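User: Hey, my collaborator sent me this sequence without any context and asked if I could get a structure. I don't really work with proteins. Can you help?
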Amino acid sequence: MSDKIKIVISDEQKSVKVPKGIRMIVRRSCLAALQMENVGGPCIINVTFTDNAKIRELKQRYTGRGVEAGAMWLPESGGEALGTIYISMEKAQELSIEQKKLQNEYIQVSADLKSGDLGSKKEQLKELKKRSLMLTDNSRQWIKITSGLKCWEDDEVITDYVSNKALNLIDEITDGNITEENCEQLHLKLESV
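Assistant: No problem. I've predicted the 3D structure and written it out in structure-token form, which is a compact way to encode the shape of the chain:
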């Protein structure tokens, strides 16, 4: 299909240098658009790089409104030429600069979010969940230990071998009076049994 279609690109402006590779991108874009629209047969599309003033002048002449625009399409009737696409290189450059600014802002905002409050809050939440699981597991173990200690108070065979001081310490610990000293004393008393 592309051998039947001719894309003629001209540059009638001098204010902005046409970046390398733009002509190829424009040519491919035109061919893709024509292919999507099922345009066949030999045809010509003219693409003219121009400036803002020329686009305003064309808009005024053909639409009655001299508004600033980045591009304009003027169809042609008869012959192989389908029409001319006018592209303002000044506007294209402005849009390119604006796009780069927006990309840089996006990158900065993303980095700020990741390193800032949101990122640290996610890490804090992750750490709190881990700590919560650990505390739940510790609580389960503590309940198991205290219920085991309470069994010692109720079992008469054990109470015959364990001193009253050890039983009192068990009572204090299961009631919540947990100190390092109480735990060490209980440990020594139970070890001596």
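In plain terms: The mean pLDDT is 84. You can pass these tokens on to your collaborator as they are.
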